[in-house]
Design brief:
The protein is an alpha/beta fold. It is 37% helix and 26% strand. Strands 2-1-5-6-11-10 form a six-stranded mixed beta sheet, with helices on both faces. Strands 8-7-9 form a three-stranded mixed beta sheet. Helix 2 links the parallel strand 1 and strand 2. Helix 4 packs parallel to helix 6. The structure holds S-adenosylmethionine.
Protein backbone atom coordinates (compact mmCIF):
# COMPACT_ATOMS: atom_id res chain seq x y z
CA UNK A 1 0.00 0.00 0.00
CA UNK A 2 1.26 3.50 -0.83
CA UNK A 3 2.02 5.91 2.04
CA UNK A 4 -0.88 8.33 2.39
CA UNK A 5 -1.31 11.46 4.51
CA UNK A 6 -4.93 12.62 4.91
CA UNK A 7 -3.68 16.18 5.64
CA UNK A 8 -1.72 16.26 2.37
CA UNK A 9 -4.83 15.09 0.51
CA UNK A 10 -6.89 17.85 2.14
CA UNK A 11 -4.39 20.67 1.52
CA UNK A 12 -2.92 19.72 -1.86
CA UNK A 13 -5.36 21.78 -3.97
CA UNK A 14 -4.97 24.90 -1.81
CA UNK A 15 -1.17 24.56 -1.95
CA UNK A 16 -1.22 24.08 -5.71
CA UNK A 17 -3.41 27.17 -6.18
CA UNK A 18 -1.13 29.26 -3.95
CA UNK A 19 2.21 28.20 -5.46
CA UNK A 20 1.04 28.12 -9.10
CA UNK A 21 1.78 31.80 -9.81
CA UNK A 22 5.20 31.56 -8.14
CA UNK A 23 6.14 28.51 -10.24
CA UNK A 24 4.97 29.99 -13.55
CA UNK A 25 8.49 31.05 -14.53
CA UNK A 26 10.36 28.27 -12.74
CA UNK A 27 11.34 24.79 -13.85
CA UNK A 28 13.12 22.76 -11.22
CA UNK A 29 11.81 22.25 -7.67
CA UNK A 30 13.57 20.52 -4.75
CA UNK A 31 11.13 19.39 -2.05
CA UNK A 32 12.43 18.82 1.48
CA UNK A 33 10.62 16.30 3.69
CA UNK A 34 8.31 15.01 0.94
CA UNK A 35 6.61 12.57 3.33
CA UNK A 36 4.40 10.59 0.96
CA UNK A 37 5.14 12.25 -2.41
CA UNK A 38 1.51 13.40 -2.75
CA UNK A 39 2.42 17.05 -3.42
CA UNK A 40 4.98 16.07 -6.08
CA UNK A 41 2.44 13.99 -7.98
CA UNK A 42 -0.31 16.59 -7.69
CA UNK A 43 1.76 19.63 -8.69
CA UNK A 44 3.57 18.00 -11.63
CA UNK A 45 0.28 16.68 -13.05
CA UNK A 46 -1.11 20.23 -13.02
CA UNK A 47 2.08 22.06 -14.08
CA UNK A 48 3.72 20.19 -16.96
CA UNK A 49 6.74 22.52 -17.14
CA UNK A 50 7.91 21.55 -13.63
CA UNK A 51 10.48 18.89 -12.66
CA UNK A 52 9.98 18.09 -8.96
CA UNK A 53 12.78 16.41 -7.01
CA UNK A 54 11.44 14.78 -3.82
CA UNK A 55 13.64 14.14 -0.79
CA UNK A 56 13.26 13.02 2.81
CA UNK A 57 15.04 11.17 5.61
CA UNK A 58 16.25 7.74 4.40
CA UNK A 59 13.42 5.83 6.16
CA UNK A 60 10.78 7.69 4.16
CA UNK A 61 12.43 7.26 0.76
CA UNK A 62 11.11 3.76 -0.16
CA UNK A 63 7.50 4.86 0.38
CA UNK A 64 7.94 8.02 -1.71
CA UNK A 65 9.68 5.97 -4.42
CA UNK A 66 6.74 3.54 -4.49
CA UNK A 67 4.27 6.41 -4.91
CA UNK A 68 6.28 8.03 -7.69
CA UNK A 69 6.62 4.72 -9.51
CA UNK A 70 2.88 4.12 -9.24
CA UNK A 71 1.57 7.63 -9.86
CA UNK A 72 4.40 9.87 -10.91
CA UNK A 73 5.78 10.85 -14.29
CA UNK A 74 9.19 11.49 -15.91
CA UNK A 75 9.21 14.87 -14.15
CA UNK A 76 9.31 13.28 -10.67
CA UNK A 77 12.77 11.65 -10.53
CA UNK A 78 13.54 9.07 -7.81
CA UNK A 79 13.55 10.61 -4.32
CA UNK A 80 16.81 11.56 -2.58
CA UNK A 81 17.75 10.54 0.96
CA UNK A 82 18.37 14.00 2.41
CA UNK A 83 18.64 15.10 6.02
CA UNK A 84 18.61 18.89 6.20
CA UNK A 85 21.30 18.75 8.91
CA UNK A 86 23.80 16.72 6.83
CA UNK A 87 25.67 19.04 4.47
CA UNK A 88 26.28 19.13 1.63
CA UNK A 89 22.83 18.15 0.40
CA UNK A 90 23.15 15.25 -2.08
CA UNK A 91 21.82 16.93 -5.16
CA UNK A 92 22.12 14.62 -8.16
CA UNK A 93 25.58 14.48 -9.71
CA UNK A 94 24.22 15.61 -13.04
CA UNK A 95 22.87 18.75 -11.40
CA UNK A 96 25.26 21.52 -10.50
CA UNK A 97 24.95 23.39 -7.20
CA UNK A 98 22.49 26.27 -7.38
CA UNK A 99 20.55 24.36 -10.02
CA UNK A 100 17.17 24.49 -8.30
CA UNK A 101 15.10 27.57 -8.97
CA UNK A 102 12.52 26.66 -6.30
CA UNK A 103 12.61 24.90 -2.93
CA UNK A 104 9.35 23.67 -1.37
CA UNK A 105 8.64 22.24 2.04
CA UNK A 106 5.32 21.56 3.80
CA UNK A 107 4.70 20.88 7.48
CA UNK A 108 8.34 20.23 8.31
CA UNK A 109 9.87 23.22 10.14
CA UNK A 110 7.68 22.71 13.23
CA UNK A 111 8.62 19.00 13.32
CA UNK A 112 12.39 19.55 13.07
CA UNK A 113 14.52 21.02 15.86
CA UNK A 114 15.42 24.69 15.57
CA UNK A 115 19.03 23.68 14.74
CA UNK A 116 17.64 21.74 11.79
CA UNK A 117 15.61 24.78 10.74
CA UNK A 118 18.84 26.81 10.73
CA UNK A 119 20.46 24.09 8.60
CA UNK A 120 17.49 24.19 6.23
CA UNK A 121 17.97 27.88 5.44
CA UNK A 122 21.78 27.66 5.27
CA UNK A 123 21.64 24.75 2.82
CA UNK A 124 18.91 26.41 0.75
CA UNK A 125 21.44 29.21 0.34
CA UNK A 126 23.83 26.66 -1.23
CA UNK A 127 21.49 25.07 -3.77
CA UNK A 128 19.03 27.80 -4.76
CA UNK A 129 19.75 29.65 -7.98
CA UNK A 130 19.87 33.47 -7.99
CA UNK A 131 16.32 34.74 -8.40
CA UNK A 132 14.94 31.41 -7.15
CA UNK A 133 12.23 31.02 -4.51
CA UNK A 134 11.88 29.18 -1.21
CA UNK A 135 8.30 28.18 -0.29
CA UNK A 136 7.43 27.09 3.26
CA UNK A 137 3.94 25.85 4.14
CA UNK A 138 2.70 25.28 7.68
CA UNK A 139 1.50 26.95 10.89
CA UNK A 140 3.42 30.07 12.01
CA UNK A 141 3.61 32.41 14.99
CA UNK A 142 3.76 36.19 14.48
CA UNK A 143 5.38 38.50 17.04
CA UNK A 144 5.69 35.48 19.33
CA UNK A 145 1.92 34.85 19.29
CA UNK A 146 -0.05 31.91 17.95
CA UNK A 147 -2.59 32.90 15.32
CA UNK A 148 -5.27 30.69 16.92
CA UNK A 149 -5.90 28.65 20.06
CA UNK A 150 -5.89 25.48 17.94
CA UNK A 151 -2.33 26.27 16.81
CA UNK A 152 -1.32 26.85 20.45
CA UNK A 153 -2.82 23.44 21.34
CA UNK A 154 -1.03 21.84 18.37
CA UNK A 155 2.28 23.36 19.51
CA UNK A 156 1.80 21.92 23.01
CA UNK A 157 1.12 18.46 21.51
CA UNK A 158 4.23 18.70 19.34
CA UNK A 159 6.42 19.64 22.32
CA UNK A 160 5.03 16.76 24.38
CA UNK A 161 6.15 14.37 21.66
CA UNK A 162 9.49 16.13 21.12
CA UNK A 163 10.57 19.15 23.19
CA UNK A 164 12.67 20.35 20.22
CA UNK A 165 9.67 20.57 17.89
CA UNK A 166 7.37 23.58 17.84
CA UNK A 167 5.63 26.16 15.67
CA UNK A 168 8.21 28.69 14.45
CA UNK A 169 8.15 32.46 14.57
CA UNK A 170 7.69 34.07 11.17
CA UNK A 171 10.19 36.80 12.12
CA UNK A 172 12.89 34.23 12.98
CA UNK A 173 12.41 32.42 9.67
CA UNK A 174 12.46 35.74 7.84
CA UNK A 175 15.81 36.62 9.49
CA UNK A 176 17.28 33.23 8.51
CA UNK A 177 16.07 33.74 4.94
CA UNK A 178 17.55 37.25 4.86
CA UNK A 179 20.97 35.83 5.83
CA UNK A 180 20.75 33.83 2.59
CA UNK A 181 19.92 36.92 0.53
CA UNK A 182 16.23 36.03 0.35
CA UNK A 183 13.45 38.56 0.87
CA UNK A 184 9.77 37.90 1.47
CA UNK A 185 7.74 37.80 -1.74
CA UNK A 186 4.43 36.52 -0.31
CA UNK A 187 2.77 35.51 2.94
CA UNK A 188 -0.55 33.86 2.11
CA UNK A 189 -3.25 32.71 4.53
CA UNK A 190 -4.11 29.05 3.92
CA UNK A 191 -6.89 26.76 5.19
CA UNK A 192 -6.72 25.33 8.71
CA UNK A 193 -4.68 28.27 10.08
CA UNK A 194 -1.63 27.57 7.95
CA UNK A 195 0.49 30.02 5.93
CA UNK A 196 2.43 29.79 2.69
CA UNK A 197 5.61 31.88 2.93
CA UNK A 198 7.58 32.57 -0.25
CA UNK A 199 11.02 34.20 -0.23
CA UNK A 200 12.90 35.18 -3.36
CA UNK A 201 16.66 35.13 -3.61
CA UNK A 202 18.39 38.20 -5.00
CA UNK A 203 19.78 38.03 -8.49
CA UNK A 204 22.99 39.92 -7.69
C1 LIG B 1 4.58 16.12 9.12
S1 LIG B 1 5.58 15.37 7.89
C2 LIG B 1 5.15 16.29 6.44
C3 LIG B 1 5.28 15.48 5.18
C4 LIG B 1 4.86 16.18 3.89
N1 LIG B 1 5.72 17.29 3.61
C5 LIG B 1 3.42 16.62 3.93
O1 LIG B 1 3.15 17.83 3.99
O2 LIG B 1 2.54 15.74 3.93
C6 LIG B 1 7.22 15.96 8.29
C7 LIG B 1 8.29 15.45 7.36
O3 LIG B 1 9.56 16.06 7.70
C8 LIG B 1 10.56 15.10 7.50
N2 LIG B 1 11.76 15.46 8.28
C9 LIG B 1 11.89 15.53 9.61
N3 LIG B 1 13.15 15.83 9.95
C10 LIG B 1 13.84 16.00 8.80
C11 LIG B 1 15.18 16.32 8.48
N4 LIG B 1 16.11 16.51 9.46
N5 LIG B 1 15.55 16.40 7.18
C12 LIG B 1 14.64 16.19 6.19
N6 LIG B 1 13.35 15.88 6.43
C13 LIG B 1 12.94 15.77 7.72
C14 LIG B 1 9.91 13.81 8.01
O4 LIG B 1 10.59 12.67 7.58
C15 LIG B 1 8.52 13.95 7.41
O5 LIG B 1 8.42 13.41 6.11
Amino acid sequence: MLPHAPAAERNKDAILDAIRPHLAARARVLEIGSGTGQHAVHVTKALPHIVWQCSDLADAVPGIAARLEAEGNPRTPPPLALDVAAPPWPVPEAVSPEAFDAIFTANTLHIMSFTHVEHFFARVGEVLAPGGICCVYGPMKYGGDFTTQSNADFDAQLRTRNPESGIRDFETLDDLAYEQEMTLAADTAMPANNRLLVWQRGTG
